[in-house]
Amino acid sequence: MKLFAKLGLIGLVSGAAIATAVTPSYAQGFATRTEVYDPGTGNIADYRRDVTNALGTPQADRTRDFLSLGMGGSAIFSFASAENVDGYFSGSVTVWETTWGNKSRQSQYDERIEVFVGNNLNDVENWLSIGEIWNIRDGAFDTNQSDGSAGSGATLDIGNDDLYKYVRVVDLSQKRADGFDVNAIAVNPANAPAEAVPEPATIIGGLLALGGGALAKKCRNR
Question: Are 70 and 42 spatial neighbours (Cβ–Cβ below 8 Å)?
């Protein structure tokens, strides 16, 4: 009976430990708000300053639905939505850019940005830089496919499992007067813990724990 009791106790402990290990689900979510727009120098037409142009899904090539950063300009985006109320994300950041000119030569349309992630709008100096994106070299200009679906854009891995709320892009362009043209930005939204789906092992562990506990109680009552 002592052996059964010990097995039941082990089942309860292991089941409880496994039950706390849940895996949040992730799905692509596009920017929903431009928190800050600080245009740089250069000739930026009015329609290129519309901060809503960088929100939502990538728009087709040759449209005016993009936000120009200007030389040395920057912008910060957030991703809160009905499905992801707090707007947290993790894993990677994907950027689409609009290039109207020659897409075969980076030297002619040299537009690029540095991408940062962070959680405090008032402390951007301490944000994490996750790398640079070049419009042509990295394929950021790939905005849409012939079937109307979003193109691949250019993706940077964040490099850790932390959660972030904001993406900041800073123009590093060398030759184009209006700087990098942000078409769209997407992240992997992190659902709240309450919405996380337990792993199959969690369910199995819980059932084993209940079974072990019941067996131990039966043995003690004999």
Answer: yes
